[in-house]
């Protein structure tokens, strides 16, 4: 069982005057590696991601921790960013930022992927059938290009490999993160304007 030791800096908005580097809690929630670990702007909620495609949200860490865990349907996350008290962005091996939000009761859920990927339109059923029969009998279609496109392959994503880091881009003393950047193993740095994609709850 993995024990997560939380070390909080002096500007996390703690209700208690903790000294820098002092251990404030030990959580035994995840039986796997923990990747990204982030505090909400107020310091009341902690989020971290596990290698088992789970994300954890923990409230009241200093008192009686109440944890929620969400099982992701796809690949694990590597980093997390709170854009407000009720919204967080997770990035990782899916190469596409994931949006998480809390409702009025504080229950967290997955909303959607941030980077909408376009799917190329599929060819007609007749041409798909003739191509399948040609492959079956070792024949190639006459006049067809050698560059084939998979109809179901998603295209148009900003990142092409694992996203490893997410950084807020604030103006002055903004409490809500409206813009952030991501970087990944594809060597790209992408700047996102969140207001163009979704309404940010406070």
From TrEMBL:
It is found in: Cytoplasm. Residues 137-157 are annotated as: Disordered. One of its GO terms (biological process) is Arp2/3 complex-mediated actin nucleation. The lineage of its organism: Eukaryota, Viridiplantae, Streptophyta, Embryophyta, Tracheophyta. The keyword Repeat applies. One of its GO terms (cellular component) is cytoplasm. It comes from the Eukaryota. It comes from Triticum urartu. Keywords: Cytoplasm, Cytoskeleton, Repeat, WD repeat. Residues 139-149 have a biased composition (Polar residues). One of its GO terms (molecular function) is actin filament binding. This is Actin-related protein 2/3 complex subunit 1B.
């Amino acid at each position: 069982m993995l024990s997560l030791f939380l070390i909080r800096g002096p500007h996390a908005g703690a209700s208690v005057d903790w000294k820098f580097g002092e251990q404030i809690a030990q959580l035994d929630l995840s039986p796997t590696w923990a990747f990204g670990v982030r505090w909400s702007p107020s310091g009341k909620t902690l989020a971290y991601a596990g290698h088992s495609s789970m994300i954890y949200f923990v409230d009241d860490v200093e008192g009686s921790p109440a944890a929620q865990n969400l099982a992701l349907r796809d690949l694990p996350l590597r980093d997390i960013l709170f854009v407000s008290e009720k919204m967080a962005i997770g990035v990782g091996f899916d190469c596409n930022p994931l949006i998480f939000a809390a409702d009025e009761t504080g229950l967290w859920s997955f909303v959607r992927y941030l980077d909408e990927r376009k799917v190329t339109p599929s060819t007609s059923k007749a041409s798909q059938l003739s191509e399948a029969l040609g492959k079956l009998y070792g024949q190639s279609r006459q006049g067809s290009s050698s560059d084939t496109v998979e109809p179901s392959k998603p295209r148009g994503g900003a990142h092409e490999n694992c996203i490893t880091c997410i950084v807020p881009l604030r103006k002055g003393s903004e409490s809500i993160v409206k813009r952030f950047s991501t970087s990944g193993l594809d060597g790209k740095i992408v700047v996102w304007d969140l207001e163009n994609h979704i309404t940010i709850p406070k």
